[in-house]
Amino acid sequence: MGQQTFQPENPPKRSGCTGCSWALAIPIGCLALVLLVSVGIAALGGLGIFGAMKAMKSSDFYAQALEQVQASAEVTEGLGSPIKGGIPRSWHMHSVGASSDAEAEFRISGPKGKGVVNVEGVKTKGKWEFTRLDVTFGGATLDLLAAEP
Hints:
149 residues, alpha+beta, Nuclear Transport Factor 2, Chain: A, 2 domains, five-stranded antiparallel β-sheet, 3 helices, 37% helix, elongated
């Protein structure tokens, strides 16, 4: 007798990726690529903003304003000591030649609380002269330029 081989007429379908439809795989791949690029761009933008804010915080305009805030007895009494400056929330600087004008808003904090500094100034001959310097904390605003002798 001879051997007979049995072959079913409808072989079972294999599961897995061999049965994937290209109509589904291509959009999913494109979506993954778009998400990857978007995350990369957002990360670079965040680093750029962080770098710009750090540069602002290290400027002489910011440093001199924070120094005057820290020297204020009223602010130190209200917020405690030491008073630390935060990253600027808003910032504008315009320079032409050796003169500049700037305005900024930044947070400060001390052991007793937090506040916000608003400062505007003009730089001539290498020195900043503030036209506005006030601190808001505890529901009140203190004008540090009016408090100077």
